[in-house]
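INPUT
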Amino acid sequence: MELLSDLAIGFGVAFTLSNLAYCVLGVFVGTLIGVLPGVGPLVTIAVLLPLTFGLPPEAAMIMLAGIYYGAAYGGSTTAILVNLPGESSAAVTCLDGYQMARQGRAGPALAISAIGSFVAGCFGTFLIAIVAVPLTELALRFGAPEFCSLIVLALIATAVLVRGSMIKGIAVALLGVLFGLAGIDVTSGVDRFTFGIPGLIDGIPFVVVAMGLFAFSEIIRNLEHTEHREVYSAKITGLMPTMRDLKDSWKPILRGTAVGSFFGILPGAGQTIASFGSYAVEKKISKTPERFGRGAIEGVAGPEAANNASAQCAFIPTLTLGIPGSGTMALMLGALMIQGITPGPRVLTSHPELFWGLIASMWIGNLLLVILNLPLIGLWVSMLKIPYRWLYPIILVFSCIGIYAVNHSAIDVWLMVMFGILGYVFLKLDVEPAPFILGFLLGPMLEINFRRAMLLSRGSFDIFVTHPISAAFLLAAAGLIILMVVPTIRQKKEEAVLEDD
Amino acid sequence: MRLTKDLLSGVMFLAFGIGAATVAYGYQFGTPARMGSGFFPVVIGVIVAIMGFALVVRALVRPESSEPVELPQFRPVFFIGLAIVVFGLLIEDAGLLASLAALIILARFAGREGGSLELAIMIITLIAIAVAIFVYGLNLRMKLVP
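OUTPUT
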């Protein structure tokens, strides 16, 4: 049983006192920031990323993973109590969770959300542990054409499935690729797109782009719209769900887990589609669909499980292939690169303790969420009362120090303003920033593999279709584009990813 | 002419695409088998420009397919941007304390609420938290005062 011995290594790493402490700290801080209305998970991770700079790679990833689940879970709490989704995937939780809160059942809604997330998290972690080894073995056989096509698939999937038009999604992903190319071209040693700015020779730092694009524009968006919050906190009395609640929820949790795992593995599909998909399934098979939207516990249990399952499974392509499927995963990958580790299938063999330690810590992190969150609910509620005029200076202080700390360079700080303004323009023009960050991260990899493949084929593009795996990836990408051109499917997507912010 | 979101994003992509392709055309182009450093960025730039052009054409032919752009409010963008720029100017010479204070004070102008007492409390608490976490907790090398 190689899996067991691998997991033993992992738990050995994760259960050291210091790593356990980083996991607890990550989950706690992640939830603390994630609860704040108007601070989404991407910004939470971007802002807290500098906290991990001085740590060894394992500890850094364990803490970031904790922040990641904490932020996701905190977002659900806000969705249930204030009806403000921190990110689009929590928008589904608002539908029935907030209604439950208004009926004085915030406690059971939060508890079911925690239990559902935990069940889904356990399954997701288990799935990662099982598929990681075979998938990396497959990926190790990938050559340049396969990687090239896989990156194209990941970019197209993300671009096509985000809100808004497909052309804009693909264009912004490619724009990200262009920005990712800035700096020294590794093959020829020529500076590209540096415009004589010395700080750009090593490329634009990833943290700068992430903070500018997400944190800056999120602050501006929140300042432009005056806030309206109604916290249903006075009525949190009984936390524990009744037997009836549990009986109503366990099947939706399992179904949600299945739906979420499926969408999580697919590059680009992500949590939003997973949670909306699960909600649609529950509503369809329910004997009383009219209860949905009026506080049906199934409408919280299923999507919350789906959300967390897909959040876990999103680690599969990120860790085994080095291809992130979402903006958040791109950040995790960026963090890995800051630690000096090249993401990809070789991580499993070159850093087994990092890989298995992270997997073990995922399970521990999910357990901690249940243990920490329910008793600390009072603390989260008090966080909800912090006005935004206090929050944005905190985010700014963390972002600025964090950016400056990476290279001790003021130019990086100014670059962040530039990307912030770009993010603001994107916001005004309804251009989604998530494909941009993915393109930015994958751009150099795409170019290197494209060049290598074309060198192998002596300049013939046939190589991408004569290699069967590469052809399959491209076919999948083409299929996605064709699907989105079909009007009825496009309409379904618009319904599914509609944000009500 | 209606300034719709699609029209302006098309113009943006067109400009970025043409700009990138033009700059990259100055690098060595090469052949498909032996690409120079300009090949890939030129190709991507051209594709971005074509997509931008397609967006512009669609927006001009069917202006109703996209919403008009909301007018931006310049106050938050200006003051948040200014606050960060000034932080960058001060951090190297004036030290962390002064640059954080400037950051927080300037950022305050981006919003419209809160009194000066609150601002003072905020400056003191935030600087204390930041120094505790980054300088003492994480041991980042940063000087506090000039």
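end of record. The CA atoms of residues 6 and 66 of chain B lie 6 Å apart.
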